[in-house]
Structure formats: structure tokens, C-alpha cells
User: What shape does this take?
Amino acid sequence: MRLTKDEARILAEAMEEYKYKVVENPHYKELGVFDKLFDLQYKLEIFGDDKRRNGRTTQDNFNDLIKRLAK
Assistant: This one.
């Protein structure tokens, strides 16, 4: 399965909140999952950065990303 840059950015935003909920579980906290989730979020953010959108009418902000997804 391949991810588009937009999909990667959406997943990174979802990870932002989800990683804190995961570490509330004592079992996952012991495993040190938070650091791995943080690394995954960072990789998704880097991959999702689309430099081609700079200066265009459809910018690279999250609102435009959601509009593109809705189409």
C-alpha cells in the first residue's frame, strides 16, 4: 500500500493526539511506545511536506488538505 503526501499528513495529525492516549495504558507505557509513535509521526510529517504547493492557489495548510480530501 502506498500513501500520498496528503494521507501522510492526515495520519501525522491523527498521531499527534493518539500517542498521548496510548501511553495512558500502563502496559504500553512500560514498553516505551511513546518514543516510537513520536518517531513515526515525525516521519509522516516529513514525507507529507509537499514543496510543490508553495506559491500555488492551493496552499499546503491543513484546511486546504481537508478540502482536497473531501473532493
